[in-house]
Amino acid sequence: MSLVNLAHVCSHLNNATKARLGLTSIPNTQLHLKLCLALQNSGYISSVVRGGPTPPPQHTLLGVPSVNDEVEGVQSLTQSNVASRRLWLGLKYWQSDPVLGKMSMVSKPKRRVTIDVAGLREVIRGEKSGYVEGLRSPGESLYLSTDRGIMEARECVEKQVGGLVLCRVL
User: By percentage, how much of the chain surpasses pLDDT 70?
Assistant: First the structure.
């Protein structure tokens, strides 16, 4: 797990929302995919599509099936094009404000922050636990990497698991 690349993704998404982009791409890794799917489940981004260096067709981003999907979707994955694979993210806006406000890293490459369930309960209540500040606003989320995948802090408390604190979304 490379936290350096995840920090680049966080700053890229911050810059993309400030620039009011509707579609952006990040490198395709398992960590990025799982985090983006967790962000999509929380409602911060609208779509996550795997693709190449060029954006996927509009109907793919919207989830509308097309007649030629089988013909367009057949693109073999080879050793030469694996580095050019991208995750295309559809960003959401509500009344011309970005839904994904600010994304910041909690764990750094030199200081990985782990937290247990008792500490997570404190953080959810708005109190500080170790290096992790409490969640202050209702729309704020904290994402953790656990042995069950990447989950939001409230979901981790429900399932009684702790883990590595990845990032905070305001």
Answer: 87
Pair 70, 19 in one domain: yes
pLDDT of residue 72: 47
Count each helix (H run) and each strand (E run) in the chain, helices first: 6, 10
Query: How many CB atoms lie under 10 A from the CB of residue 2?
Result: 11
Residues 6+ apart with CB under 8 A from 135: 123, 124, 126, 141, 142, 153
Tens-digit pLDDT profile for residues 140-164: 999 999 999 999 999 999 999 999 9
Number of domains, the chain:
2
Query: Do both 67 and 113 map to the same domain?
Result: no
Among 137, 136, 139, 135, CA closest to 157: 135
Contact between residue 102 and residue 139 where contact means Cβ atoms under 8 Å apart: no
